[in-house]
Specification:
The complex is a heterodimer of chains A (288) and B (334).
Chain A lengths: L3 H33 L1 E4 L4 E5 L3 H8 L3 H30 L6 H9 L6 H12 L6 H8 L7 H4 L1 H26 L3 H9 L4 H28 L4 H6 L9 H11 L3 H26 L6
Antiparallel strand pairs in A: 1-2
Chain B lengths: L3 E10 L2 E11 L4 E5 L6 H9 L6 E6 L2 E2 L10 E4 L11 H11 L4 H14 L15 H13 L5 E5 L7 H18 L2 E6 L2 H7 L2 E6 L2 E6 L1 H6 L4 H6 L6 E3 L1 H5 L5 E4 L4 E4 L5 E4 L3 E3 L3 E6 L8 E6 L9 E6 L5 E3 L5 E2 L1
Parallel strand pairs in B: 3-8, 3-9, 6-7, 7-8
Antiparallel strand pairs in B: 1-2, 1-4, 4-5, 9-10, 11-12, 12-19, 13-18, 14-18, 15-16, 16-17, 19-20
Helix pairs in contact in B: 2-4
Classes of the chains: A mainly alpha (288), B alpha+beta (334).
Chain lengths: 288, 334
């Protein structure tokens, strides 16, 4: 982009993409903001005019608001914790030369290709079902009482399902990062007297810092919005109602578009708070 | 401290035999250079000594103790890698401290050793920087510093200067030689650059395809190469070889003569040729002259300028006492 001419050309060529992005983002955002200040009940009179901050007050004072925020954060935090820890372990493991490496790698990545709805249903019906599920059989085999996963340990079950889905992503990113580690650095550390665990802690882990940051940031974006897994398993019951799910219930089950829109704005604020915290904690890893 | 001996050491990667049975003695305090073309197994040999590769068979002894099965860290050797292998997320101080920290040396002792090493290597001002903020030469010195603080029985250098530019390389060559003088520790140095080998070594080990072709001091190798390979590898520009009738006249299959041992004349001489490309270095001039029976064009060194034009006919005579003779197998005949 050196010359005036090429800069102008670049702007023209980028314009359609920028326009599309703006429309895609701005239109829904503006509409959300617009509806959040309206009393809008599609089946009970439709647009009933402006209400000021009424929706905002109602949404935040509802008894289900804070629990839903908490649930959201627990799920995001739990999944991040599990995927990063297991992801690092799997990446280290998959980086070892072994027989059938290609097939094992594909198998590890496979869960990522399964649609969230499908994987949640598979987990719900084939693993966690208290009568016919694999876990129930396993428990019975050892003479234990089968766990009613989705009602007794609902939040943990959802964290488990979502972690299973996102583990491949973390593993993949961390594996490529591990592969880019200079072998000579590990050998130098070995010569310097570092034991395998120390080599991992002092050389491999710091090298993975940036990749871990990226995994955390990207996953957070998607995890704040998980919906399908909750919808097809618990339907928001048993303390699994996240902020996203609460908004869905306000808009579609209570048919209150205004209230839901206000919730949407809170979701944006929550996402930003989480983002600021994350950038504070891990963002410095992204600087070279 | 620092006597290393290799006994019938071999190394294979799968079916590929990289190093056939090999014996080598490295004496305490010696500066030994492994030199050879790419892929001759010199780095592998160094890594075997370091313990980063397992020997397939044979024994490695360090200071009289069998070290074949000893892990790298316990061998008391320090290695400087080609890529320097500095830890990018640690400051220079922490890089140098790393081996001490692993050995659980106490903090005061660590600081003392780091200060000493930094002073010796002119790194004092850079101790708090990261490797990424240093120049190539400085990184090289950090890598050496990390090796020094361990006070090893021997230093292993794996082509340490190949990533530096020409001027810096000459500097670092001197610095490493000087370091060897001060520390008086065994050093094993791997390079493909015969100039580095000639200038630094007490003892050169010329390798080809895992075999030791010759071991000797730089001048021994220069004066009396054992075979054609060593003759062609040591010395710059490389030795000229002539075969056929010209060689037969001297009673050999091949004769070799170094560029600096040929006299050039306009009037008379043993061989005749026309001047091709000439390289003027000011102090010397190298003429490339095609001559009958020469394997390549003959390279001839002349002091200063002779004023020879391209295409001019000249006569060349080898200085007989410096003529090398080889039989059909390439072995030197004396």
């Amino acid at each position: 982009m050196a010359t005036q001419h090429s800069r102008a050309a670049a702007r023209i060529m980028m314009a359609p993409a920028v326009f599309l992005l703006l429309v895609w983002m701005l239109v829904p955002l503006t509409m959300t903001l617009y509806f959040s200040f309206k009393k809008y009940l599609p089946l009970r009179g439709g647009d009933l005019g402006w209400t000021g901050f009424d929706n905002y007050v109602r949404f935040v004072t509802s008894s289900s608001f804070w629990p839903s925020v908490q649930t959201t954060l627990v799920i995001v935090g739990g999944v991040l914790f599990i995927t990063v820890i297991l992801g690092i372990m799997l990446a280290v493991l998959l980086n070892q030369p072994m027989w059938g490496q290609g097939i094992v790698r594909i198998l590890v990545i496979a869960p990522f290709f399964v649609m969230p709805t499908v994987s949640a249903l598979v987990w719900k019906n084939m693993f966690m079902d208290p009568v016919n599920g694999l876990f129930a059989h396993l428990w019975k085999f050892f003479g234990a009482e089968p766990v009613q996963w989705l009602s007794q340990a609902s939040l943990q079950s959802i964290v488990m399902i979502v972690s299973w889905q996102w583990l491949p992503f973390a593993t993949l990113i961390l594996l490529t990062a591990i592969q880019s580690l200079d072998r000579e650095q590990l050998e130098a550390a070995e010569m310097d007297g570092a034991q395998p665990v120390q080599r991992f802690a002092f050389i491999t882990l710091p090298h993975l810092g940036r990749a871990i940051t990226i995994v955390i940031l990207i996953q957070t974006i998607f995890l704040l919005a998980i919906f399908a897994e909750i919808f097809v398993t618990t339907g928001g019951a048993f303390g699994t109602r996240t902020l996203t799910y609460l908004i869905f219930q306000r808009v579609l089950e209570s048919q209150n578009v205004g209230l839901g829109s206000a919730g949407g704005v809170y979701a944006i604020i929550l996402a930003n708070i989480v983002a600021i915290f994350l950038m504070r904690i891990v963002g410095k890893n992204l600087d070279a | 401290m620092g006597h290393i001996s290799l006994n019938q050491v071999t190394k294979s990667f799968g079916d590929v035999n990289v190093i056939p049975p090999l014996d080598l003695e490295i004496n305490d305090g010696e500066f030994v250079v492994f030199v050879g073309p790419s892929g001759c197994g010199k780095s592998t040999l160094l890594r075997l000594i370091a313990g980063l590769e397992d020997v397939t068979s044979g024994h490695i002894e360090i200071d009289g103790k069998d070290a074949t099965e000893v892990p790298p860290a316990k061998r008391g050797l320090a290695m400087v890698f080609q890529s320097y292998a500095l830890y990018p997320h640690m400051s220079v101080r922490k890089n140098i401290a790393f081996p001490l920290r692993m050995a659980k040396v106490d903090q005061a002792e660590q600081d003392r050793k780091i200060e000493a090493a930094a002073k010796a290597l002119n790194l004092t001002d850079y101790l708090d920087r990261r490797p990424g903020q240093l120049s190539g030469g400085q990184r090289q010195r950090v890598a050496i510093g990390r090796a020094i603080v361990r006070e090893p029985a021997a230093f292993l250098f794996d082509e340490p200067l190949s990533n530096l530019d020409a001027a810096l390389r000459v500097n670092m060559r001197l610095e490493i030689s000087e370091l060897h003088q001060t520390l008086d520790t065994t050093m094993i140095y791997v390079t493909h650059d015969q100039v580095e080998a000639m200038t630094m070594a007490d003892k050169i080990v010329v390798l080809r395809a895992g075999n030791i072709e010759q071991v000797g001091s730089p001048l021994e190798l220069y004066r009396a190469p054992r075979n054609k390979f060593v003759a062609g590898f040591i010395g710059s520009p490389k030795m000229n070889f002539l075969t056929g009738a010209t060689a037969a006249a001297h009673g050999a299959h091949t004769i070799g003569i170094r560029p600096e041992h040929i006299e050039i004349s306009r009037e008379a001489g043993a061989w005749k040729g026309k001047v091709g490309v000439s390289e003027h270095l000011g102090s010397d001039t190298f003429f490339h002259i095609p001559v009958a029976d020469a394997e390549d064009t003959l390279t001839v060194r002349a002091s200063g300028e002779l004023g020879l034009e391209r295409g001019e006919e000249v006569f060349l005579s080898p200085i007989m006492e410096h003529l090398h003779m080889f039989d059909a197998q390439g072995l030197a005949v004396r």
